[in-house]
Amino acid sequence: MQASSQVVTVVVLLADPDAPTVVAKRLARTLPARLAEKSGRQRRFTVEVVSRPFTADAEDPSTLMRRIVEDGSAESWDIVVALTDLPLHSHRRRLVVDLSHEHGTALLSLPSLGGWRLQGKARRVVEEAVLSLAASRSPGCERAAYRRPPLGPFAGRLAPIRPGPVDEEELADLRYVADGPRGYLKLLVGMVRANRPWRLVPGLSKALAAALATGAIATVDDTVWSLATSLGTPRLVVATVGSVGLMIGWLIVDANLWHRTTEGSPEARQRSVLYNTSTLVTVTIGALVCYVGLMVVSFVWALFVLNGHVFASATRHPLNAQNYCTLSWFVASIATVGGALGSGLESDEAIRAAAYSTREQERRHMLQGEHDG
Fold this sequence. Notes:
With about 375 residues, the chain is of the alpha/beta class. The protein has 13 helices and eight strands. Helix content is about 55%, strand content about 15%. Strands 1, 2, 3, 4, 5, 6, 7 and 8 form an eight-stranded mixed sheet that branches. A hairpin with a 4-residue loop joins strand 5 (about 95-100) and strand 6 (about 105-110). It is elongated. About 40% of the residues are buried.
């Protein structure tokens, strides 16, 4: 009898494909129980996850909120919280979350939460947003009551989150933004995390195969031995920077990862800079991981195949630990250049996913497919 008197609120987590959907599914496992516990009322919550490219061909918060409201009305959802991995801006500020208590909707930009403890931060924001939206839709609730900021206690350690301006014609009635240089840095780190740079390494399988073959040959070449022992640390650093830089440039050009905007607005240019910076950082991390891997493999390979007497007679240097490391370092640079130029890198899905602009194109195709179907 007590269960039948409970008010059931349907909460839908509308998530963009890929990373936001993963976050939403993890939230849905514990969200109903946590919401029921925190609501302190005779209320029960059911949480559903809907994966849909709702941000396709739009990056304006007002446009996205209208889409969310239309979807919620068409599906008769009580509360809709939309999650996206796109960086959103409003009034040249970095948007964290928009809320519309009148329509029971919220829009959360995941990168604005940063790159550390993303799941926990997203859970806290979603919980506070849902509780605020649910309270505003309770019978007898006045508008002034739900004007109170629901995320007051929530502030990032690196970049405090604070209320932002909302235009009268917008559907949102409450907005939180991340200001300042630290807010920009936090957003950039969140974008790089959303790109998931660790997925870039498996996408370089052909480059790695060519690089390993180049490194295996270079390790047993006596000319390479002589060069490695004669080069000082500054030249080895230059070789590292040059080879990694060549790999990064090749990946960006070959996979067409650079974002070019046709809009002339300051916000469009700001988004373009963010896209390209996050792509550059993502590809750099992937290239550095490959470089370190090549160095380790070259070191192990040298331990097995090199002979100390042959090495000493060719270079007039003993084959000690220092020369093992120096040779492996130099061979990794040679192998990186060989892998970048000789492998014919293909535009792999993992490489394309390193750029927001490319993933946005994929979402447009997905949305067009839904309309055609």
